[in-house]
């Protein structure tokens, strides 16, 4: 199993928005970075777990845990000229952009703020902390994922039950 970090601005789409969706599931559309696309297309598997990170907000940090809920498939927003994520170079025959569905997996007892991530020695190598990293999706090591879950107040039994 792989682990990931998905970033979203909470005023665009938040962890609470995901929890409120029917079946607590949503396509992760609109990714327009080749590396993030490649992670979804080439490395993610249904069942992988991810940290849902709120960015560009007063209190950035991990808000909850999500699960990859589908195989990758073409992002339909790339074909719609009225959509902000339209890509005129893409076609249904030759899609450029992929997405996966994500699903709510667990709430944290408390969010894990960016300051806490920065000040936790075991998390010093997380990609989100690297200067200049603006990817909306990054891999996370199993140890980093476990430590974030612990900092968020999940008990060992709850973490084990996730997957």
Using DSSP, what is the number of strands?
Answer: 8
SSE order: EHEHEEEEEHEHH
What is the C-level CATH assignment?
Alpha Beta
Residue windows where pLDDT falls under 50 for at least 5 positions = none
List the helices and strands and how they pair.
Elements: E1 3-8, H1 15-20, E2 25-27, H2 34-43, E3 49-54, E4 61-68, E5 73-74, E6 98-99, E7 101-113, H3 114-119, E8 137-140, H4 142-151, H5 156-162
Parallel strand pairs: 1-3
Antiparallel strand pairs: 1-8, 2-7, 3-4, 4-7, 5-6
Summary of the model, kept short:
This protein is of the alpha+beta class and about 160 residues long. The protein has one domain: Roll (ph1033 like fold). Helix content is about 25%, strand content about 25%.
Plain-language structure description:
The protein is α+β, with helices and mostly antiparallel strands and about 160 residues long. The protein has five helices and eight strands; from the N terminus they run βαβαβββββαβαα. It has a single domain (about 5-160), classed as ph1033 like fold (Roll), CATH 3.10.590. About 25% of the residues lie in helices and about 25% in strands. Strand 3 and strand 4 (about 60-70) form a beta hairpin. The termini are close together.
Keywords, please?
163 residues, alpha+beta, ph1033 like fold, six-stranded mixed beta sheet, 24% helix
